[in-house]
What we know:
Strand content: over 45%
Order of helices and strands: HEEEEEEEEEEEEE
Distance between the termini: 98 Å
Number of strands: 13
Largest sheet: 8 strands, antiparallel, barrel
Mean pLDDT: 83
Number of helices: 1
Shape: elongated
Helix content: under 10%
Strand order of the largest sheet: 3-4-5-6-7-10-11-12
Low-confidence stretches: none
Radius of gyration: 29 Å
Structural class: mainly beta
Amino acid sequence: xxxxxxxxxxxxxxxxxxxxxxxxxxxxxxxxxxxxxxxxxxxxxxxxxxxxxxxxxxxxxxxxxxxxxxxxxxxxxxxxxxxxxxxxxxxxxxxxxxxxxxxxxxxxxxxxxxxxxxxxxxxxxxxxxxxxxxxxxxxxxxxxxxxxxxxxxxxxxxxxxxxxxxxxxxxxxxxxxxxxxxxxxxxxxxxxxxxxxxxxxxxxxxxxx
Length: 209
């Protein structure tokens, strides 16, 4: 009887092994889909970017723990994303009347929660802050000249109702917590998003001349 050569045995082993590999069950393999950061949505006759940068800004009132009076407050926040992570940077000023500011604040940090749909947008902001505050001395509006400069923790909750997908209005509750003073406030905000990408295909309306 003719002996089977080692080369033939090797090819037979490789053929059987390949068959077993191809027949393996891959149903339990988890596949990960990467987000499309240029994804667009069509609302009405316009296109909008799903992953968008936006600005909130407004006016309201706040209370400082080292001041017995409510103050007028102005604030603006730039909210942007790097891939799927959203960040925030902004500023806040407050005083007992317009132009007589005794508190200036800048803040920058992270947005751990941001959600939006066609009707609403909301976000929670967690920032580090730096404040320059003139402390209240005595009524009605006398403050210590030398400002108190402090690092602290700033947070806000943004809630905006959309007029269309990229514009709207809403409210912002904010807090600035520093070692020697805390600020709590609420302002009425405008909302502007950079997500607008133009008319959807087939919906462009030529201006009447």
